């Protein structure tokens, strides 16, 4: 059976799209957090407060990993950069896990195994 016409191909494709969409949305929110802190945005402003509130649960596990660098009201939050890296790696790992479930023909598997042994 051709792996492109496998019944598992479309759900795997949709699954990977969903994971990348969620990861992209989270990365964008964390990037906003990073930039707002970096440029010293007013935390009482509605947008800033919203971004800090929505990203807090995702940034919280990393907040005490590094010291925060303060320069004239600007905050370089290394922990947000770390969070972005970790969540991107988690998304990548989930995608790889999904792709392991993809149907593979015997000749295709033989070629891939041969290339891994080199």
Tell me what the structure shows:
The protein has four helices and two strands, in the order H-H-E-E-H-H. With 118 residues, the chain is mainly alpha-helical. It has one domain (3-116). Strands 1-2 form a two-stranded antiparallel ribbon. A hairpin with a 2-residue loop joins strand 1 and strand 2 (74-76). The radius of gyration is 20 Å and the shape is elongated. The mean pLDDT is 88.
- The total strand number stands at 2
Helix content: 55-70%
Question: In order across it, which strands form the biggest sheet?
Answer: 1-2
- Major pleated sheet: 2 strands, antiparallel
Question: Beta-strand level of the residues, as a percent range?
Answer: 5-15%
> Topology as H/E string?
HHEEHH
Number of helices: 4
The rough form would be described as elongated
Please mark out the parts with pLDDT under 50 across 5 or more consecutive residues, or reply none: none
Work out the radius of gyration: 20 Å
Distance between the termini: 27 Å
- By secondary-structure content and strand pairing, the structural class works out as mainly alpha
**Average pLDDT reading:** 88
Indicate how many domains the architecture comprises.
1
